Amino acid sequence: MKLIVTLLVVGIMFAAAGPARSQSLSAESLRSLATSYEFFVVIEPNEEKPLRFMYADKGPHIHIYTVEDGRPDLDFELTDLNTRVSAMFVRDLDKDGEESIIIATKGGRILAYGLNNYEFLFENFQDDFQRIICMVAENIDDDPQDEVIFTDGDFLYIYDSVSRAQEWKSDRNYTAGQIRLANIDDDPQLEIILNTGFVIDSHFYTEETVSATTGLFGARVEMLDLTGDGFPEILGEIEFPLRIWDLYNREELW
Fold it and tell me: Helix or strand or coil: residue 213?
């Protein structure tokens, strides 16, 4: 384990430093790394804890390290997940002012832990799943709490984060390796964007017409307004090079 952490730290220092290589494990270098890797998360410092970083390995394990004076120190580990992690983020799901660590696994588990004391909070919702491919959380309706949106490789699901009850299940198959949420048209609600090429209205759950013309967006996708029209384009990486779609105008740009 010490070797893994050493290699990780060295990688951060080389990746974030540029021509003048950094000599310390800094908040800036960690945040830079977190933008590149889905299963590497920076936990910002608070009154109880210094800066931390969290990552998942193929073990499957999750490790959390504190960082003080440029040195990492193991603070917490999860070693009983049984299958690899498919989602991992820090979020205040129920909007009570307390953030939690939220984890999903390929084996269908959804777990929550306290951010500072790592107390186990809950596992799963009102239904059990054999697998979870990817998962995100966002407030997409009129109540204050977040909804949790995920696919099990067959269908798309939306669950309330407080009651943990199902709000919606798609009536057709939707699979995805990534889910993004953005407002890409003139209505006020967000759209659910799957990297497999589907765009779904989060209020009416209807499939947007863009889905029929684009096909796969990419194995890895991000959102950014490249045209300056107020609506983000989707950048999809399919090996090389990038493909870029204007979702508002329903066309591939480059």
Answer: helix
Map tokens 């967000």 to a residue.
Answer: 190
Q: What is the largest CA-CA distance in the chain?
A: 54
DSSP assignment, residue 206? P
Q: Cβ distance 76 to 53 under 8 Å?
A: no
- pLDDT digits over 158-217, tens only? 999 999 999 999 999 999 999 999 998 889 999 999 999 999 999 999 998 665 566 789
- pTM over the 0.70 mark: yes
Is residue 73 within 8 Å of 66, Cβ to Cβ?
yes
- Give the contacts of 244 (CB within 8 A, at least 6 positions apart): 226, 233, 234, 235, 236, 252, 253, 254
Residue corresponding to tokens 């909804």: 147
Q: How many helices (H) and strands (E) does the chain have?
A: 3, 19
Q: Rounded CA gap, 237 and 243, in Å?
A: 6
Give me the DSSP letters along 57-82: -SSS-EEEEEEETTEEEEEEEE----
For 53-65, the pLDDT digits (tens) are 999 998 899 999 9
From the list 161, 108, 166, 114, the residue with the least C-alpha distance to 133 is 108
